[in-house]
């Protein structure tokens, strides 16, 4: 992940962080003031970072949605065919909130900074008159509002997963074999596009496709009586652990 900012001297700096299931760690910071608007140079910078970390260790590169970074991200995906690039969700939400602030129904409810400056002396005078000597609330370190929104969205996502699991009674394995089961085309496209990008070897992809056909057709271990009888009695991960022996590559 890369996060750009401007310091007190007007320099454009980019922090690079590495995220994994264990958390996020700082990798390095680079002064890219001379190349910040150059798509090609930004691409080379991202490419060098991936090379330094090791392409085999990188699944996704995340940047903000600035046009130069969008162009650089696309160039990176063209060269590094196994990884994905995407824009930062927090930055996208910031832009959405800015656009909402420009809507007619919100424009006049947000007080512009010059008006705040003009009204501040009046406010202080009123405060001194009625506060009985108590101080104004002191400002403290805050986080982006988007951090709050993303945290809320993650909580909602986790709750949605729990509700889905409860609805299916944690027996998702059997629903694939239901006669009314019809996989969503968007999900299938996403699955195969991901396989083509992350598994470049054609033979491996062919083996995975063959194993998926066995799973869908309930053939081999997937079609044994015990596998059929336990579709609605075991959690999917445990079911695959028991009967997915012929789908090791896919597993």
Automatic annotation (TrEMBL):
Positions of the DUF659 domain: 1-108
Classification via Pfam families: DUF659
Parts of the chain that traverse the membrane: none
Name under which the protein is recorded: DUF659 domain-containing protein
Organism: Mucuna pruriens (Velvet bean)
């Amino acid at each position: 992940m890369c996060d750009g900012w401007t310091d007190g001297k007007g320099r454009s700096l980019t922090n690079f962080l590495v995220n994994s299931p264990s958390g996020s760690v700082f990798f390095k910071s680079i002064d890219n003031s001379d190349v910040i608007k150059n798509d090609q140079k930004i691409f080379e910078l991202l490419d060098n970072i991936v090379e330094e970390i090791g392409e085999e260790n990188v699944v996704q590169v995340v940047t903000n949605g600035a046009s130069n970074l969008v162009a650089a991200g696309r160039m990176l995906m063209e060269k590094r065919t196994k990884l994905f690039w995407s824009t930062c969700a927090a930055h996208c939400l910031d832009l959405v909130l800015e656009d909402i602030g420009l809507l007619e129904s919100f424009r006049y409810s947000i007080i512009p900074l010059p008006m705040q400056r003009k009204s501040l002396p009046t406010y202080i005078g009123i405060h001194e008159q009625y506060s009985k000597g108590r101080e104004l609330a002191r400002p403290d370190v805050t986080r982006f509002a988007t951090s709050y929104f993303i945290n809320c969205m993650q909580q909602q996502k986790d709750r949605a997963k729990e509700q889905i699991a409860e609805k299916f009674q944690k027996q998702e394995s059997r629903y694939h074999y239901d006669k009314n089961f019809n996989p969503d085309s968007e999900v299938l496209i996403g699955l195969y596009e991901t396989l083509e990008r992350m598994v470049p070897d054609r033979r491996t992809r062919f083996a995975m496709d063959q194993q998926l056909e066995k799973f869908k057709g309930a053939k081999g271990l997937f079609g044994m009586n015990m596998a059929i009888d336990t579709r609605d009695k075991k959690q999917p991960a445990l079911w695959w652990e028991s009967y997915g022996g012929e789908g090791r590559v896919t597993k």
